[in-house]
Amino acid sequence: MKPIAKIKGHKAKPIDMVAWSANSQILASGAPDSTVRLWDREGKSIKKIDVPDYGELCVAWAPDGTLASAGNKVIRLWDSDGNALREFDAKTNAMTILAWSPDSKMIASDTIEKETNLWKPDGTHIKTLEGHTAHVSGIAWSPDNTLLITVSSDAKMHLWEPTGTLIKVIKQHYESETSVAWAPDSKSFAVGTWLKKHIRIYDRDGNSDQVIEGHKDKVSSVVWSSDGKMIISGSTDKTAMIWNPDGTLIEKLDINKAVTSVALSPDNQLLAVSSWDDKILLYDLKELE
C-alpha cells in the first residue's frame, strides 16, 4: 500500500508526533522547528501555529476538541482552529507525551524526572505520580476512564486510578516498554517494547499470554483502532505494521526512516506516520478492504 499524500511543511526533523482530532477532520503535528501544524484529511495545510523558543515535541487532542502541545517546560492549549487558549508551566525541561482523559478534564504529562504529572486544563496541578525508576515512555487512559497506565524503560507498567492512586505494578524483566494503547472496550491494552522488539497484549489485571512479533527493532509507537479490529505499530526498523489483534499481519508499510509516531483517525480510515524525516506519510486504510 502506498501513501495517498506526503505532507511537507515543517522546516526541521524529526517530526516528533502526529495526532488526529476526535472528529477525524484535523491532523496535528509537532516538530523542532517551533511550530505546530494543522492539516486536513487530504494532507493540505490548515494552519501553522508559531510557538516561542523551542520545538513542540508532543501534541494531543482532547475529546472536546481542545489541542494540547508541549515543549520547553510549557504546556499550551489551543482551540480546534489553532487559536491560543492558555499556557502553563509544566515543571519539566522536556515532555514527549501528553494524554487527555476521556472526559477532557485532565491531562497527563511525562517528565525527565521519571514521573507523571496530572493537570486540569486551566493549569492547576492535581498530582505527581511517582514510582518509576526510569523515564516514562508511554501514558494512556482507558476509554472508560477508570484506569490510567504508565509504561517505562524500567520494564514496569503502573496502573493508576484516575485520582492518581497506584493500583498495581506489572513487571516484565528485560522488556523495556516504549508505548501503550488501550483496546476500545477497556478490557486489554497493547504495549510496545524496546529490547524485545515486539508488542505484548495484557488484560486490565496485568495478565498476558499473547505476543505480536515481526518488527526488527524498537517498537516506537502503537495504537488500537476504535472499532477494535486493528493494532498499528511503528518502529525504528523503518516500518509501520497493521495487525489483527490476534497477531496476524494485515499490512507492512515501508517508511524508509525510523518511525516516531503512528496516528489512526477515530473513524479508522486514515493513518498518519511521522518519522525521522520532515514529511508525514498519509495512508487511506479503505484500500485494505
What does this structure look like?
- Strand 20 and strand 21 (210-212) form a beta hairpin.
- The chain has a four-stranded antiparallel beta sheet with strand order 1-28-27-26, with no helix packed on it. Strands 2-3-4-5 form a four-stranded antiparallel beta sheet, with no helix packed on it. It has a four-stranded antiparallel beta sheet with strand order 6-7-8-9, with no helix packed on it.
- It is globular, with a radius of gyration of 17 Å.
- The chain has strands spanning 5-8, 17-20, 27-31, 35-39, 45-50, 58-61, 67-71, 74-78, 84-89, 98-100, 107-110, 116-119, 125-129, 136-141, 148-152, 156-160, 166-171, 177-182, 188-193, 199-203, 210-212, 219-224, 231-235, 239-243, 249-254, 259-264, 270-275, 279-284.
- The chain contains no helices and 28 strands.
- The protein has 289 residues and is mainly β.
- It has one domain: YVTN repeat-like/Quinoprotein amine dehydrogenase (Methylamine Dehydrogenase, Chain H).
How would you sum up this structure in a few lines?
The protein has 289 residues and is mainly β.
Features of this protein?
globular; 289 residues; 28 strands; mainly beta; Methylamine Dehydrogenase, Chain H
Topology of this protein?
Layout: E1 5-8, E2 17-20, E3 27-31, E4 35-39, E5 45-50, E6 58-61, E7 67-71, E8 74-78, E9 84-89, E10 98-100, E11 107-110, E12 116-119, E13 125-129, E14 136-141, E15 148-152, E16 156-160, E17 166-171, E18 177-182, E19 188-193, E20 199-203, E21 210-212, E22 219-224, E23 231-235, E24 239-243, E25 249-254, E26 259-264, E27 270-275, E28 279-284
Antiparallel strand pairs: 1-28, 2-3, 3-4, 4-5, 6-7, 7-8, 8-9, 10-11, 11-12, 12-13, 14-15, 15-16, 16-17, 18-19, 19-20, 20-21, 22-23, 23-24, 24-25, 26-27, 27-28
